[in-house]
Every structure is written in C-alpha cells, then in structure tokens.
C-alpha cells in the first residue's frame, strides 16, 4: 500500500481523485485545492469531503439558521448557546441542564435496529461531552402508512433499537411521538433527544487549548463502520442503481457506552481532562478539526497510534470511520498518568495520539510521513455556504384553496360517536403503549411523568423537588399547508405540553427534517419554517439552544412533509406539584380553557376520515399561548387544578377520552351554548387545554382566569360511572373507548 | 432426506459486541493466546426430500431474507454429506 503524503501530493498535482464519489461538487474540490495550494492528499480529501457534507457543514441551512441567534430572546437561563455539542440551561439551585435532539433518519431506514440504536448512542455522547450525566432520552418517530409492508420492516426494528440501546444504558425513555404519513415511507424519521444534568461549575466546552496538551482517543476501537456514512448517507437519496454507495452500517454496543459514561464522569470529577469531544459523524476528522479550531488552532496527530479493530484500514478510512462509543480528550501532560489510571480502571482502551500545538495547522502523520497538513478552520468552519434559491411552490395556493369546508361532517349523536371511536383507533391518535411499553420509563427512579402524559417530567434534586419537563412535537401536515405557521404550531404545542404539567417553559432544541435543498420548493419550506420558529421563540421567550438539520429526506421528487420537531424544556420548582393528565376524582369540574373556532385545515379528522389535506392550518396566537401557560403554571403551583391535558390533534373529544382513560373514571360533558357539537368536539383550535378543578378551588380558579381575561367554559363534571357521556349527543362506556384506543398497534404488529 | 447448513456471520467490518465479550471472558478465565473472537449462527435445516439445486436455491432465498440480515451479515449455504 502506498501512502499518499503531502510531499507526494505536491509532486503529482494531476493525479485523478475520487471527489465525485465522495460527494463533493467540482467547485468544492477546486476550492480545497485553492485553500491548500496543491491537490489534497487522500486523507485530506476524506476529511474535507465528510466535513463539507450537508450533514456536517450545514452548507444549505447555515444562512437561515443564523436567525436563531439574531432573533434570540433575552434569557437569563441560557448558559451555553448554539455551536457547542449541546446547549445548557440554568434551572436554579446551581443546577444546569443540557438537552439536544438529533436525527438518525437514513441509517434507520437501511438497518432499522442499529440505525436507531446508534442514534440514541450518539446523542447521549453529545450530552456527556458537555460534562453532564445523561438522565433521560426521548424519541420522535415518523413512519410510512401503518399498513405498508415497509413500515412493518422499519418500525419494529427502530422501536427495538431505541429500546434496546436506551434500556441497556439504564436511561428512562420519558416520551416522544409516533406519527404515520405516506410521505415518510422510505424516509422514516428517527430523532432522538437526550437530557443531562450537571452543576454550573461542571460545564465543559470542547476546545483544544494549552500547547503541549495531549490528544487522547479512548473507548471502542476504530473499525470500518459507516465509512463515508456522514457524507454519503446525508447527501444523496438512495438510488438502487448504485448499491456500492450503501456504506457499512455502524453497530453500537450500549454496554461499552455505559462504561464510557461512568469513565468520562469520573475523568471530569477528578479534573484530569481539559475537554472531551464525542466522535459521531465524520469520526476523527470531525473531532480533531473541531477541537483544534475551537481552541488554540493547532494539533499534531500520529494516526498510526489509533487502536484499530481492523488493521487493514487505510489512513483515509481511519479519518472517516464512524465506529461508535469513542471519545477524544485533551489532557495536560501532568494529568496524563491519572487520566490513564482512570480509563484503565474502567477497562477502556486508550491511546495518546497527538498533542495540541500553536501552529494553527492540523498535521496528521502516518508512520513519520505527513498525510495531512491543513488549517483546521477551513475543514470545520469555513466550508461552503450556499444561498440556495427558494421559491413558494406553485401548488401552495391551490393546496390552501382546497379547504376542508366541503367535507361531509357528522351531525347526529350516533355519527359523532362513530367519529370519535374511529379517530381514537386511527394510527396517529391510537395509544402508543405497544411502542412505549418496550422502553424502560422508570429506571433511575426520578421519572415523575412519562408517556402517555403531555410531557415527560423528571426530578433533578431530591431535597427540593426541583425538576424539568420536556415535550417534543412536530406537525408536518400543518407545515405543509403553511410552513411558517406550521413551525410555530409545533413550537406552540410543545410549549403548551410543558406548561400543562405545571412547568415554566425555558428553552428549545429543534430537529429540522426536510426534503432536498436543491428543490426551491423544499428550500422555501425550510426557510419559512426557520423564520416561523425563530419569530415564535422570540415571542415566547424561549431561545433555541441547538439542534440538528436533516435534508434530502425524499424519494425521487417527492419530499417528506416539512417536519420541524420542537423539543421544549421547562422547569418545575417542585415536581410534587406537577399536574398529571388523567381525571381521577369524582365530582371535580371540567373547564375548557381557550377559544374554540371552526378550524379543520390539516386536522386529524380531515386526514383520518377523508384522507384530506388542504386549506389553512389553525391560527396561531402566541400571546394566548403565553397566557394559557401562565394560568396552567400558576394553577399547578397554587394547587387549583388536579388534572390538565392540552388540546391538539383530534381536538377536545380525543383529549377528553384520554383523560378518562388514564384512570378509568367517567365524565359528563355538555356542549356550551352557541357551539356546534362537531366543532366543539373535533376542532384543532390552538391555545386550549382542559383542566379538572376541585370544587373547593373553583372560585379561585375562575377568578384567576377572569382576571387574565382568558376564556374558560365549564363543560362538564368528572364522575366514577365508567362512561363518557356527551349530554344530548351520545355516550360511550370507557371500556369501549379503551378497546378502540388500544387495539390498533397490537393488531398491526402482533400478527 | 438431506441436511442443508446455513452459517451466518457478521460482516468483517461490523463490530461484534458479543464476540468481544467472549474474548474478554477468555482472558479473564485464563485461556491464553486468543487474538480475537467473532460469534455467528449456524442453522441445520432438514429437507423433506433430496438436496436438489431447486431446494438449495430455496434455502438460499430463505437465508437472504429470513436467517441473515444481509445489510450487516454474510452467510454461506452448504449441503452436508452423508445424512
């Protein structure tokens, strides 16, 4: 094997190179040559190609993502913002929480189990690198139609992978969503979120500073996993004619990761490590260039010191390998022995592979010969930036004009009853217990609320009861009808879900999943969604702390629904005061908070009953969302309500059914004067919730709503009759509701 | 009656956590001189009739779709003599 060195590259400028196969465009390749003043070596080409891929460089999205910084609301809570491994938020009492969502979409389509498992593993390492102990995960999943064959290949594997990896790590999975839509066939979305906790003084940033400090690679050995996965997977849609482009899949080892978590936390605790960076997409290329360019700017690496699982790997492959469960640390020479003693204690293989320099160059040697000599900034930060053309698609007007007004609506009591039961059984509204029951929700003993509650709630501090609530939401149908509004609706729903538990919303992480940025229509959806999200976060006072962009989610010309998944984190001063979803006490009064309008565009009813998607999504009123959140948070703090459930997909009827199903009680509900029963039951108007109020608190509660001029209607009473009774319309025994709600997934997957 | 054997192994470049765990146990229990362990699966399939080329082809199809995950695993099919 001849090794392509810098010296050789200077002498052989005309040697053809596989830049095309590596996913680079001709002008990008030329730019690399201009930066280096010569042709790149194979190792350099590997580095640039993975780091300049869409996945790592955000080259199509960067110009739009800037808005999250420019429009960031003032927030005292934000300790670390966008740009690091994950954002960090102050939750009080000296505690800081870090959280982030990341996609692993394409790998989960190729190999569902391992793709989803390594998606969880990757985001957990991001959280770990900040110095935090990972305490919970969530996952936000999208699949093709429930009855499609491929969904039966992909879904069970993804669910088993999420559960397998998270359960083995001993992390509770406290929530997420599962959505089915034809646009996700062959483009499933697997977005994993992790949350971690630390004290303020334990926050670590991934910077390689201190000339002479050692660069240490530790964890699993480097093998041929996912070589080129970062660039090839995320840059082109699958094409059956080019099977060779399908890269080797990464396989994760959660037990290795568990050891790595404890090892890293002990290294931080012992103060023997300056910085830790996880190795994810683009492996060593990414870790070295990012650490160096965020620090003193120089690094000298002897690549042959990397411990290999497969000794036949070439230097370029070692640079690109995406083997899992690896970390890179920066260690002072004085601390090196103590560092190695800790990794040895945990049986974690460790190799010193280089040191930090002040040269401003990232130099990589292979057995004494220089195979890469680059300015790390040009690799990690100065990648291409595209101002992709975007244009409102021509079909947008006709889509919006095709509203749900002409769809036949149920009117009689029997028809409304049938509609409720069919919607409860529909794929998007059915109970997801078959999925979430495969995840451990209570391990570690701090889970206060988990699926099917509106948000996951975790206790952080045992002595004070301080805790956090997190919800993920993303409605692609709303966003298809209007991406700006749709993204805000996703934000509003996550915000409402968090507030429903009694938590004060603080900060956002976003998982942006779209089609090809080379399609101006998709790029328009993307630009509009970001604009909507940035404006929305500004209005709600919840800054975006970080997240992930996944593009090229499409098959042929058909893109997925524009899917902006919002993960929102809130804080509870005492989790003992959290508000659960289910009705429990007979005699408590049910109030509907917020205004109900005739809004069915993009609704679950229009989709599930008529296969219709058109018109305008429900209108957004962020001021009302804020007001509603304050009511819910104050009512929880002051003990005015015993249950609360936000109204979203499927409207009031679904929320009522879920609230009585939680503890198997019953309820009597009446339609307020002047409201059409169908609109009352199924409209998806926003900024609404239902609450159960003890009679002793009813006056205080209604006084609070009146003082805030927030619409509140007394719509029913909780009873223990085991029946959901819509007075004058219909009644359904809770058992019948449960059968309708709970049978869909088991009968689809337990064949 | 004929017996067809399908051996399934993870592809060489794929991480094998089980093999790694076995390798760790080797050295813990004092079995020296082991450089690496990889673990696979073996299926012994008894046919109703003879191992005709058609019958073996059918087993190969089953191996590719049911017994192995060709994304991460390789398999070999052979007819065992003298059963």
UniProtKB/TrEMBL annotation, chain A:
Region (Disordered): 391-413
Record-linked InterPro entries: PRibForGlyAmidine_synth_PurL, PurL_linker, PurM-like_C_dom, PurM-like_C_sf, PurM-like_N, PurM-like_N_sf
Location of the PurM-like C-terminal domain: 211-366, 586-726
Protein's pathway: Purine metabolism; IMP biosynthesis via de novo pathway; 5-amino-1-(5-phospho-D-ribosyl)imidazole from N(2)-formyl-N(1)-(5-phospho-D-ribosyl)glycinamide: step 1/2
CC terms in the record's Gene Ontology section: cytoplasm
Residue ranges constituting the PurM-like N-terminal domain according to the UniProt record: 83-198, 453-568
Active-site annotation: 55, 104
Keyword Magnesium: yes
Catalysed conversion reaction: N(2)-formyl-N(1)-(5-phospho-beta-D-ribosyl)glycinamide + L-glutamine + ATP + H2O = 2-formamido-N(1)-(5-O-phospho-beta-D-ribosyl)acetamidine + L-glutamate + ADP + phosphate + H(+)
Keywords carried by this UniProt record: ATP-binding, Cytoplasm, Ligase, Magnesium, Metal-binding, Nucleotide-binding, Purine biosynthesis
Residues bound to Mg(2+) 2: 126, 278
Domain Phosphoribosylformylglycinamidine synthase linker positions: 21-59
Residues noted as binding Mg(2+) 1 in the record, renumbered to the chain: 102, 548
Chain sites annotated for binding substrate: 103-106, 125, 250, 322-324, 550
Enzyme class: ligase
Compartments, record wording: Cytoplasm
GO molecular function, one term: ATP binding
Record-level GO BP terms: 'de novo' IMP biosynthetic process
Residues binding ATP: 58, 100, 510, 547
Subunit structure: Monomer. Part of the FGAM synthase complex composed of 1 PurL, 1 PurQ and 2 PurS subunits.
Function: Part of the phosphoribosylformylglycinamidine synthase complex involved in the purines biosynthetic pathway. Catalyzes the ATP-dependent conversion of formylglycinamide ribonucleotide (FGAR) and glutamine to yield formylglycinamidine ribonucleotide (FGAM) and glutamate. The FGAM synthase complex is composed of three subunits. PurQ produces an ammonia molecule by converting glutamine to glutamate. PurL transfers the ammonia molecule to FGAR to form FGAM in an ATP-dependent manner.
Designated name of the protein: Phosphoribosylformylglycinamidine synthase subunit PurL
Annotated source species: Jiangella anatolica
């Amino acid at each position: 094997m001849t090794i392509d060195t810098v010296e050789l590259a200077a002498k052989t400028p005309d040697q053809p190179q596989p830049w095309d196969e590596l996913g680079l465009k001709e002008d990008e390749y030329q730019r690399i040559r201009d930066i280096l003043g010569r042709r790149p070596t194979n190792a350099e080409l590997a580095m640039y190609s993975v780091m300049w891929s869409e996945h790592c460089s955000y080259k199509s999205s960067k110009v739009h993502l800037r808005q999250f910084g420019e429009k960031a609301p003032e927030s005292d809570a934000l300790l670390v913002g966008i740009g690091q491994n994950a954002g960090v938020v102050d939750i009080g009492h000296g505690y800081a929480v870090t959280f982030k969502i990341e996609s692993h979409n394409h790998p989960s389509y190729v190999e569902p189990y391992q793709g989803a498992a390594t998606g969880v593993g990757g985001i957990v390492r991001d959280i770990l690198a900040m110095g935090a102990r990972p305490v919970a995960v969530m996952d936000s999943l999208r699949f093709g139609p429930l009855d499609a064959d491929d969904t039966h290949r992909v879904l069970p594997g993804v669910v088993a992978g999420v559960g397998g990896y998270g359960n083995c790590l001993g992390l509770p999975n406290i929530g997420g969503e599962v959505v089915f839509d034809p646009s996700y066939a062959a483009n499933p979305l697997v977005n994993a979120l992790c949350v971690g906790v630390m004290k303020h003084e334990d926050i670590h940033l991934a910077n390689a500073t201190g000339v002479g400090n050692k660069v240490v690679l530790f964890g699993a050995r480097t093998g041929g996993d996912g070589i080129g996965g970062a660039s090839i997977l995320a840059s082109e849609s699958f094409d059956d004619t080019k099977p060779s482009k399908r890269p080797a899949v990464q396989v994760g080892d959660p037990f290795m990761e568990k050891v790595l978590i404890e090892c890293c936390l002990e290294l931080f605790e012992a103060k023997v490590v300056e910085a830790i960076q996880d190795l994810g997409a683009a492996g060593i290329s990414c870790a070295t260039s990012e650490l160096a360019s965020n620090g003193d700017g120089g690094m000298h690496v002897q690549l042959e010191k990397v411990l290999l699982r497969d000794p036949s790997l070439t230097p370029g492959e070692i640079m690109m390998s995406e083997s899992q469960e690896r970390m890179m640390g920066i260690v002072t020479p004085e601390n090196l022995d103590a560092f190695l003693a800790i990794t040895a204690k945990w049986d974690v293989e460790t190799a010193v592979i280089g040191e930090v320099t002040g040269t401003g160059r990232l130099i990589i040697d292979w057995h004494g010969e220089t195979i890469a000599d680059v300015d790390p900034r040009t690799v990690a930060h100065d990648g291409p930036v595209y101002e992709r053309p975007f244009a409102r698609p021509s079909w947008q007007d006709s889509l919006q004009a095709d509203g749900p007004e002409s769809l036949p609506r149920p009117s009689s009591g029997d028809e409304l009853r049938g509609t409720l039961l069919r919607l409860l059984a529909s794929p998007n509204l059915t109970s997801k217990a078959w999925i979430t029951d495969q995840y451990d929700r209570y391990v570690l003993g701090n889970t206060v609320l988990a699926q099917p509650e509106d948000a996951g709630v975790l206790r952080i501090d045992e002595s004070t009861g301080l805790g956090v609530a997190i919800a993920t939401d993303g409605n692609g149908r709303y966003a298809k009808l209007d991406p700006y509004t749709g993204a805000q609706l996703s934000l509003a729903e996550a915000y409402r879900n968090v507030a429903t538990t009694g938590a004060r919303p603080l900060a956002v992480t976003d998982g942006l999943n779209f089609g090809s940025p080379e399609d101006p229509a998709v790029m328009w959806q993307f630009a509009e969604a970001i604009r909507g999200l940035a404006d929305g976060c500004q209005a709600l006072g919840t800054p975006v702390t970080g997240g992930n962009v996944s593009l090229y989610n499409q098959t042929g010309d058909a893109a997925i629904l524009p899917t902006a998944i919002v993960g929102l984190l809130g804080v509870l001063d005492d989790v003992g005061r959290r508000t659960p979803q289910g009705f429990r006490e007979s005699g408590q009064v049910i109030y509907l908070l917020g205004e109900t309008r005739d809004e069915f565009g993009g609704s679950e009813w229009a989709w599930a009953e008529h296969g219709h998607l058109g018109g305008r999504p429900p209108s957004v009123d962020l001021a009302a969302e804020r007001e509603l959140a304050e009511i819910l948070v104050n009512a929880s703090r002051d003990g005015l309500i015993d249950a609360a459930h936000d109204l979203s997909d499927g409207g009031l009827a679904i929320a009522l059914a879920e609230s009585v199903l939680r503890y198997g009680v019953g309820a009597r509900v009446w339609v307020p004067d002047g409201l059409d029963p169908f609109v009352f039951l199924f409209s998806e108007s926003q900024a609404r919730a239902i609450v159960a109020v003890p009679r002793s608190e009813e006056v205080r509660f209604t006084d609070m709503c009146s003082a805030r001029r927030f619409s509140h209607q007394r719509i029913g009473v909780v009873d223990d009759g085991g029946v959901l009774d819509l007075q004058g319309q219909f009644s359904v025994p809770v058992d019948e509701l449960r059968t309708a709600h709970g049978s869909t997934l088991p009968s689809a997957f337990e064949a | 009656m004929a017996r067809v054997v399908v051996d399934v192994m993870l592809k060489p470049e794929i991480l094998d956590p089980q093999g790694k765990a076995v390798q760790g146990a080797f050295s813990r229990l004092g079995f020296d001189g082991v450089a690496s362990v990889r673990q696979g699966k073996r299926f012994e399939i008894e046919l109703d009739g003879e191992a005709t080329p058609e019958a073996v082809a059918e087993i190969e199809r089953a191996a590719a779709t049911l017994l192995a995950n060709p994304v991460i695993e390789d398999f070999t099919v052979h007819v065992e003599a003298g059963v």
